[in-house]
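Changelog entry: the GP-PDE domain-containing protein record was regenerated in this release. Current contents:
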Amino acid sequence: MIQIYAHRGANLERPENTMAAFKRARELGADGIEFDVYLLIKDGSLVIHHDVNMGRCEDAQGRITEFDGKSIRAFSVGEKFSPKYKDEKVPFLSELLDDVRENPIFLNCEVESLVETKDHVAVPVMEMLEQYQMADKCIVSCFNEDVLDEIKDKYPHFKVGWLFDADDSDKKRLDYCIEHRFDAIHPNYIYVTPEYVQYAHDHGVHVNVWTPDSEEDIRRMRACGVDAIITNDVLTAQSVLAE
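Regenerated structure tokens:
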């Protein structure tokens, strides 16, 4: 059965990457939640946010790594979406993990790898996931394969998936996943074909695609045989996959 992961939570109905969005995704019956984690180098805080440059979701300016855990919580990340979410703050990773302890749901933790954090981000994220005993309850994804190599070497009991946004018809990225014991590959859905998925499955690699939202695209992914759909529209995905 194809899994449905809510991209940044239920972001059509709630502010993205907020506790409200994660709660709503669970209420909608999503199989999992996808979210983004940054390491704040000023104090080592692990926070959930998508953009490296602040401002789209909050009244703040600057690169996210210019903030620490206290200062980044001074801004609402919900008010621009709707005034009724004005109290939503940038969540700490621990905040989500505490909630998942009480309200279980599978997590797709995307590790954001920046120039200033790429050599330091893997261990603190994984130590926290280890602390919360998340090995069989999450997959860790990243655009930087070196970060995933480090995770797989140090935490082989965790699942990892390589994110990318490019044509992989020559299967070089997929072959890398196979050779480096990655559990999944996370391609942009537009590049995925049935033959590509079959090749991955033949070598024990899952294919989790982002972010098909239309009925047509979700049907095509179903026909391709993908393992999970990371989507902005959970309800549409549920409706199509129930056909």
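The chain has one domain: 3-52+93-241.
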